[in-house]
Amino acid sequence: MKKWVYLFEEVAKAEKYAGSWEGVRNLLGGKGAGLFDMTRAGVPVPPGFTVTTEACNEFRKTRKFPAGQWDQQLTALKAVEKQTGKKFGDPKNPLLVSCRSGAKFSMPGMMNTILNIGLNDKVVEGMIKLTNNPRFVWDLYRRLIEMFGTTVFNLDDEVFEHPMAEYKEQKGYKLDTEMTAEDWQSLVSTFKGVFKKHVGFDFPQDVYKQLELATKAVFESWNGKRAIAYRNKEGISHDLGTAVNIVTMVFGNMGNDSGTGVAFTRNPSTGDKTMMGDYLLNAQGEDVVAGIRNADPIEHLQSQMPKVYKQFMGITARLEKHYRDMQDVEFTIERGKLWMLQTRNGKRTAKSAVKIAVDMANEGLITKEQAILRVTPENVDSLLHPQFDDEAMSNAEKNGTFFAKGVNASPGAAVGQAYFDADTAERMAKEEKQNVIMVRPFTKPDDVHGMIASQGVLTSEGGATSHAAVVARQFGIPCVVGASAIKINLGERAMTVGATIVKEGEWISVDGTTGRVFVGKMPTISPSLEQQTELLTLLKWADDICARKDIREAPAKGYPVRGLQVWANADYPKDARRARSYGAVGIGLCRTEHMFFEPERLPIVQDMILSETSEGRTEALNKLLPYQRKDFDGLFEAMDGYPVIIRLIDPPLHEFMPDEEKLLEEVITMRVKNESNGLKEKQELLTAIKGMHESNPMMGMRGVRLSIYMPEIVEMQVRAIFEAAADCTLRGIVVKPEVMIPLTGTVKELEWIQPRLERIAAAVMDEKKVKFEYKFGTMIEIPRAAVTAGEVAERAQFFSFGTNDLTQMTYGYSRDDAERNFLITYQEQGILEKNPFQTLDRGGVGKLMEWAIAEGRKTRPNLEVGICGEHGGDPSSIEWCHLIGNNYVSCSPFRVPIARLAAAHSALKHRPQKKAVTAKKKVTAKPKTSKTKSKVTKK
Ligand code: PEP
Ligand code: MG
User: 642 partner at 20 to 30 Å CA-CA among 74, 124, 696, 781?
Assistant: First the structure.
């Protein structure tokens, strides 16, 4: 006869049958497995047994218990009676049980549970005598009748709640606690009447019938509407079925030698190694949770019940050791006897997650690798940015301070006064020393000074890779973009959402972590990396994992066998210093054009653009050269010994010119007012800007195209890079410059430009009489470059995936407009699972990358490969880069710690399987003839 029922102590039998602990969890459900495991560990768990998921699945086919199940339940019940010394249905010493659902995966509140089974009119009388507590017993009985009606017979809660509310109203009671024993007794009769009226027969007095019906009800609840919907959402198989746990009821409200409580084995908010918990004497579990009475801290139990306290501390220490994690336990003390009702891994804050993981590794409870895997990149993220107070955030909707929601572009919390243009924002920050939030429909390069001066940035348009988002992340400024509900009225210096209006200078709070915006000042909490010693330790361990030379399998020649390195995108020495202090080991992208916007340089840049001759351009560029040399000098110094990738100018030139519409307005105004002073120059400027106009500037005269059209700019940049590198070398600094050519589409472009630049590099080294390592390479951000990567690698010594543009061009979605227009709808409709500008699209963009690496390394096995698009700081995209063979990822300095952890996670999750050398293999081993290349595994 098949075994359908297992007593809690029959864990060995269950394991033998199921073959593994995973199998036990399948058979007995998660809760059941936990109870069995605790019983085995000698923890006092109320005796009980579990009816298997296999029985449930049989029942679901026939709506009948499978042959033998009920008899086995009765036998198990006898064993429980023996263990407890109580008898099911015996008024003199009754055993009450609960009947709890429990599937393999936790489905909280989705299935049925019935408590206090075993009570009937006679048992109630007996229990009253035993406990001397009629109020308690009548309350249990009315709960049982109610639960039976609603869960076993699917009656509406209302059929019981209505008469109860009426009763309380008649008596003038507000709370259940005001109900007396007589009140509950009277309600039991009412409930029995209700039960009969709706179910058609009396509430079953036969306790075995109760148990049978309750077991069936739990089985049935597997296919309840709620449960099916939950499984669909969570992707849990509908075939698993639920187990039924039948557990002896224990009561903490049997007098002052009884009690109940909840506790965490370590502090769930700080991670400190001290027990944290609450308990109440003479109370039920719900009383602690509901906070009806002020609970006592767990330490007080030491004086109130020293023996129980000692036992409790011993058990919880053992449980923590057994599960090798912080435990969240529920317990009840019934007449001086301690019972453990549940133990599970406790939920915790990010801070506590890091501290517990590091402490446990240091205590030898877990390995360093396990510690790394216990902390999520999101945990690290939240530890590095100021955060809004959780409670204040959750109250915002209620108290009307919630304003709008947009894309969470750059994490962290910012509180400041709203200003609607960059100049005002900067002035208010610098001169008035205000905390400022810059609010714009979108931002452009000439808004950067306002952004830098701001605590946070908010835009109503744009997406995750819009200018505002990229720049904000780079500088670690909290930023929400594309909050399209907000109407910004630049003329009136105000913004509105419905009837709520925020005028210039009023306070707002921007949460870049969740994308939410609030009116007024929201309280924040702010951390710093240097002070977080456990986090520093964990990140060091993460780096050690990635540095291991056996952590990645190389599918072909030249592929890295160590994990990913983490580099940073940084334009200025102070960003580079921060990047290093956050653990970056290289600069993966320095966007040189940002330097052109500095106030003393912009006029020179504009002169250069407006020059009609090469000589005129060279003259202006000669003035820019010392500035650029100084910029690069600072970067090399900050990154002493590490590679620094400097990207040559990328954006279209019109971005450096005054705004065409604004200039036109000025010209018209001057003409209307008949002002001639300066009019001619402005008109000429306007004509020049109009001449530069392009319908699709992102696909126009930019990147390498601009360099071929106007090589003087990049020639000056390369000279500045190499002069700075030479000067630094002479000062004893180790430089590793890497010059990056953007937006390459064909190797012919590199063939045209690269030799000219290399000649300058060689010339500078000759002039300065120094030698140092350097590379010339390209960004891969145009699909054609990826497809023809084998050719491109003939020239390029390194690739860096510019996945912002590569995503834009692969999907054909404008990175500046897609979020505002259709991307959110696409996600809502399930057309896109994730925003491809935030999380790399593995199936399309990712495939191009994988191909480009393979083809590139066929040409040049030691090809260095990185990524510098926004995806370089996103954990899922980092995992992809690990899988396809990147050498490094590069992201904003503030995301470096997150990327370090994500890189280690990728390495640990995909470490090469050790090949077992079996005897058979030894005999049959032959040289491989198949040409199949080992393929990267994909999620
Ligand atoms: C990219 O396209 O991914 C990139 C890094 O370049 P930018 O964002 O400056 O276009
Ligand atoms: Mg780009």
Answer: 781
